[in-house]
TrEMBL record:
Domain Glycosyl transferase family: residue ranges: 192-340
Protein name: Glycosyl transferase
Gene3D superfamilies hit by this protein: Glycogen Phosphorylase B
NADP keyword on record: no
GO molecular function (one): glycosyltransferase activity
Keywords assigned: Transferase
Superkingdom classification of source: Bacteria
Amino acid sequence: MDEPRPLRIIHCFRSPVGGIFRHVRDLVEQHDRAGHEVGIVCDSSTGGAHEAALFAELEPKLKLGLVRLPIRRAIGPQDFAAVKQCYLHIKSLKPDVLHGHGAKGGAIARIIGTVLRSKGLPVARFYSPHGGSLHYRANTLMGKAIFTLERLLERQTEAIAFVCGFEQWSYQTKVGEPRCPYRLIYNGISDQEFQPIATADDAVDFAFIGMLRELKGPDVFINAFQCAERQLGRPLRAAMIGDGPDRDTYEKMIVRHGLGQRIKLLPAMRVRDAFAMSDIIVVPSRAESMPYIVLEAVAAGKSVIASRVGGIPEALGKTSPALVEPDNPEALGAIMVNALIEPEWKLKTMPEPEQFYAAFSASTMAREMLALYYQHIENTTPSEIGE
């Protein structure tokens, strides 16, 4: 049987920060290694020095290039210019696959892909929500509008790839059963990340690692930290590592609570460096899809305490005592104390390593994604072009 031909793959997403960017980087690395040509189109107005360094590392693997254009979070008139620029660039590359990530990236990729197909280019269009629009409530005006758009775009989609069961369930509940093919393909991390990371000599008790925005719960972490101190009756130390639109808000909150000497606020850094700062990683998010920080921390041998949201229970185990209901600082603080003082807490609560690797490796994710691509490229016939 002949080997399948190499593919030309373009990933389109808005903000090059957080889980979406991590997901795309892993796919780029795996698929480049397998002999495919890959490119990225994303926003130019977000991300800082940390993201710039990641792009610099990734660019040699981007055989179809990296293009960054202004792509705003909100829908507006500026989108016409962004879509036009994206279209002209993508058209010149003649991709086999256009994979949109997140609501904005998914819409842009599928609209451009549909126009290209109308002009005779048999590009296959794929979409991964990554939470995004699915965080909206179905009974709000904005939610109804966004879910209607999601429904309409299904007609311009070869397949949807969900990164966790919770995301698939949310889509089915809020948007409806997809009218296009879909598959569950878990986020995965690379083999080298399945290595223990020792803590530094000056390690703190707890670390929050992520974007400094309300959705991720930095305020919940700060309040839970205070609860843990009260329960133990002694001061503790923590690090909050990350950047984001609400950084100043949380810096003021730390000072207002008198925690300036005990909670360090640090900029985004390589995750291995962040993990060296503590053996206990706290993920107090109010909503998630399948956050990489949980997968990375477990693979690095860390204790993880997290909100019972999104796909986190699928990673840690649905009955794990490391899970807490979201937006509950008192309950979170109590689990933080248990993790700190209870002998063998990590051994009793974290997933079994071999099963975890089998479910959440990047090689598995990339292989299943390629299979999805090939399936729908093969199913694209000339009669479908120009729909």
